[in-house]
Structures are given as C-alpha cells and as structure tokens.
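Loading example: each entry is read as four labelled lines plus one structure line.
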Amino acid sequence: MDESILGHDIAGDVDGIISRPTLHEEIVERIRAMIFDEQLAAGTRVPERDLCQRFGISRTPLREALKVLASDGLITLLPNRGAWVTRMTPEDVDELFPIMGALEALSGELACENTSDADVAEVRALHYQMALHHTRGEQPEYFRINQQIHDKIMELADNPSLFQVYRPLAQRVRRARYLANASINRWDAAMREHEEILDALDARDGKRLAALLRVHLLNKLEAVKRVISTPDEKGDVIS
Amino acid sequence: MDESILGHDIAGDVDGIISRPTLHEEIVERIRAMIFDEQLAAGTRVPERDLCQRFGISRTPLREALKVLASDGLITLLPNRGAWVTRMTPEDVDELFPIMGALEALSGELACENTSDADVAEVRALHYQMALHHTRGEQPEYFRINQQIHDKIMELADNPSLFQVYRPLAQRVRRARYLANASINRWDAAMREHEEILDALDARDGKRLAALLRVHLLNKLEAVKRVISTPDEKGDVIS
DNA sequence: TTCATACATTTTGAATGCATAATGCACTTT
DNA sequence: AAAGTGCATTATGCATTCAAAATGTATGAA
C-alpha cells in the first residue's frame, strides 16, 4: 500500500505516543557519554562555546544541561569560572563506595525475586565469557563484561528508581574503577567473588547475593583509592 | 573599631571563602521548600510566570532550576506543557522505600562508627520528647521530631554524598509518609521500633541498627501505599 | 629580569526576544 | 443544548543580547 511506496512500514507506530525529547535532555546524555569515554577528561574545563558549536545549539539548553549534570555531581560549576569535569578524590571514593555497595546489595536482593532460569543462563554466559578474558589477561574486555553482569543484575531488580539513583554514582567512579582493575591481585580475587555471585543468583539467595555484592564493591575501595591517590607524571591524578 | 560602627563584627570572616550562590541554586532551594510545605501541591502545575515575578527574576534561571528539580524527580516536565509537581503513585512507593531503606540502613551503620556519648544523649532527648508527643497523640509534633531523629542519624553517618543521594528521595515521599502516620496501629508499632533503634545506637551496634532502620521503613511501606491509593473526595490522591 | 598595574578581550550569568506549540473561547452546526 | 471548528491568546523552548566578572596582555616600576 502507501507505506510500501514510501519505502517503510509505518503501521507499527500509528497509536504510539510520539516522543519529542527536548534539547537539554539530549545534551545531558551526550555530555554524559563524552565524560564516560573521556572526550571530556576529569579535572578539565567543559568548553561551553565549543560544545554549542559542535551540537549546533545556543548556550541556553547547554547551560540547562550543565546544571543537571552538576546536580548529579558529574561536573562542578565554579561561579563565574565555568564548568569542570569533577575529579575523584580519595574522600569521594570513601563516601561513594559504601553507598554503591548498599544499592548494589539491594539490586541483588530484588533480582533474586524476579530472576528466571533464562536470566540466570544469560548471566552465566556472561560470567564464563568474562572468565575467559580473565585467563587471557584481556583487561578491557573483562571490564566491559563485568559491567554488563552488574548492569544485568541491576536490570533484574526491576526497579527503575534504583537504577536512576545508582547510575550517576556509578558513572562518577567508573574511570577509577577501571584503573583499579589493573592490580592483578585484586583481579584474581574479584574473579573468585564473581563465582560466588553467580552461585548465589542461581540459588536465588537474595541475602547472600546482597552480602557478596556489597563486599565485592567494598573490596575494590582500597584498590581504587590507591590508584587515584597516585598522581601520574602529568600531575593528573586519574587520567 | 570600624566593625562596631557598622554594628556587627566582621573579624571572623576575613579569611573565609566568600560564597556567592548563583540564582538557580537559590531558586532550587526555594522551590524545594515550597513543595516541602505544599505551597506547591503534588499534581499541580508549577506556575513559571508567577514564580518569576515572586522571585523578581527572569525565566532563564527559573527554568534551569526546574530542570534540576526534574532530574531529582521532584517535578515532572511535560514537553511544551509545563512543569508539574510529581504525584506519588503506589508503584513509586514500592520502588522508593526499599532504596531509602538501604540508604537509611547504611546511615545507621556508619553512624555507629562516629557517634559520641553526647550524640547519643542528643538522640535520646529527641526520642523521649517524641515519646511524649506520642502519648499525647500530638501527631504533627511527633512527626517533626521523628524526622529530626532520622536526620540526626544521617548526619552522624558523616557522609555528605549519602545525604545528597537520600534527600531527594526522602522529600518525594515525605508527604505520603506523614499521612501514613495517621494510622494509630502503625504509630504504636513505630514507637516500639524507635525504642530499639535508640538502643542499638546506644550500643553502637551498626548491623542491628541498620537492620532496624531498614525494617522500620519497610513497615511503613504498606501504610503509605494504603494512604496514597485511597483517593479523597476531591479525587486528589495524596493531598 | 620579575613583579605589579591598567586596559582590552573573553567568558559568564541572567534578561530579553522570537518562533512554534498548546490552550481557551467564541462561533457555528447539528 | 452538545459537540465540533477556527481563531486569538498564552505558554514554552530556544536563540540572542547585555552587563558584570574573570582572564590575558602590554606596559612600566623596582
């Protein structure tokens, strides 16, 4: 019919709500992503004018986005002196890891109430893929799958508000967390902990999974602190 | 000398950092307060123009504040259709209470590591004042002191990030929480739980205090849900 | 040279302006 | 009268403008 002339099928969309994201939401996500993959590095200035040009927008929606990101703690606004990507301090890590531990523990507990066998199978597959990267010493791949497992558990918790609270915290510590994995000792230990995590999820043992996830994260705390309190030669503590 | 002529002593401030809060920060706090005490009621529109006039500012900083409050979930932005004070649904309560439970539990655990005898004495004084209001059936006073006790424990945790994460959640459920106290059954039970909470804090038993705070909050969940899912005659579910 | 100062330039915070979308209301039509 | 239609009004999202603050730079003094 008409659709085929237009070259695409619109039948599926006729009664859905039309989503019109506003600029500032879109920009929040883009800047999030840029901080995530370090196009905007911790401790550097957020180049307002450049970003406006790059995104082809005016300063108003960009600045709205900056306020939102600042309230997440992802960037820091210095009055009259611009926006800067927040740098992680050892004190921040001391504060944030216990919080994230509590939230991950909750995610594990809730996940056990909802997890199907297929879900466990999915996590198991990720787990053994991660184990493979571990034995091969492939750190970036290990780290990526590791993230996926924790994200999957968070998803199984089926609590969008929990994810929303957790996400900005996780993003703030993500880079430091990645670097902390460099320590091989900790890497082996983390892998053993993950065995137990999978086991507890399989058994739907919410309390145990919660405790494991919490300890797993707290164990990383010291490693992360060591990394970020060791300035490299550029004086740039975490990049 | 000069200070006394001006009528106040400025000697204490000479080397402190001069704080210059930006407009949008100030406005975020004001609107927070207005939602808190229901000058802006749940489910109603946030009157952008009125607020601009009232605060004597332009739309730009106000709108920046609205984006921040929206990212906290305190208000909801409908594209091209204004800002509305977020209304609490039973689903929200189901999601938020376990999260707040986990965070309060953590606050209790951390508090036990830092609490001095003087701090315990302070909480004890609040506790018995609250008990008095309970026996007298003075609900608003009871509720206020109850808040103060939980706030005090959060403060003793000495983790600003924890407070920052907790605060927006607490504010979202605050009104529903207040109404839930109306149920006398729950009120007596809550009072007994508070006895135990004080006891655990006094003993610096972090694990126990954590468990108590968590259960305390979870116990409120059902009462709160009952309240908000019972629309009143105006069809306004929580006001 | 190093340091301080004055001045031009840039950046920032907030107000204003403008195009588009949503809303309210008079007017029709049945 | 109830429901639909078209138009005027208002509100919204974003761009632009403007004043104040911060920054960079050239000049002069020690």
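The beta strands of chain A are 75-77, 83-85.
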